[in-house]
Amino acid sequence: MNKNNYKYSFTIFTSTYNREKTLSNVYESLKIQTFKDFEWLIVDDGSTDKTKEIVSMWQRESNFPIKYIQQENKGKYIAFNRGVKEAMGKFFINLDSDDFCIPVAL
Predict the structure, then answer these.
(1) Which distant-in-sequence residues (6+ apart) come within 8 Å of 1 by Cβ?
(2) End-to-end CA distance of the chain, in Å?
(3) Residues 58-86: tens digit of each pLDDT
(4) Cα-flanking dihedrals φ and ψ of residue 74, to 5°?
(5) Mean pLDDT within 43-56
(6) Rounded to whole angstroms, how far apart are CA atoms 65 and 39?
(7) What is the dihedral of CA 21, 25, 27, 32, to 10 degrees?
(8) Does the CA dihedral 63-23-32-7 come out positive or negative?
């Protein structure tokens, strides 16, 4: 993507691996953001739990775009680098899979 033509102000990035029980922290905090010009980019680094199914449900109900990329387990730094390449936001913010942010974080 030509980085002069950003699609969003922010890309909120989360790499995850078997975190179905904590990933909802990020989702719930993004749902209540007062600033709405962002995407949530999730790179799943080979989860074997129900992460994919949970994210799929959120994609259908969410009021913000969620991009989900599943890849073979290669490690967090590879997932992070993939996120940087796939991001469509001007600014890139990393939230771990158990993070929560306040409604005015953006």
Answers:
(1) 7, 88
(2) 23
(3) 999 999 999 999 999 999 999 999 999 99
(4) -130, -5
(5) 98
(6) 5
(7) 150
(8) negative
53-61 mean pLDDT: 98
Instruction: Evaluate whether 7 touches 86 at the Cβ level (below 8 Å).
Output: no
Residue 83 contacts residue 70 (beta carbons within 8 Å):
no
**What integer best gives the mean pLDDT of the chain?**
95
Q: Which amino acid is at 54?
A: I
Q: Please say whether the beta carbons of 15 and 41 come within 8 A.
A: no
The rounded distance, in Å, linking the Cα atoms of 94 and 14 is 6
Q: What is the pLDDT of residue 5?
A: 83
Query: Residue 55 pLDDT > 70, yes or no?
Result: yes
- Cα–Cα dist 99/28, whole Å: 10
How much is the CA Rg of the chain, to the nearest whole Å? 13
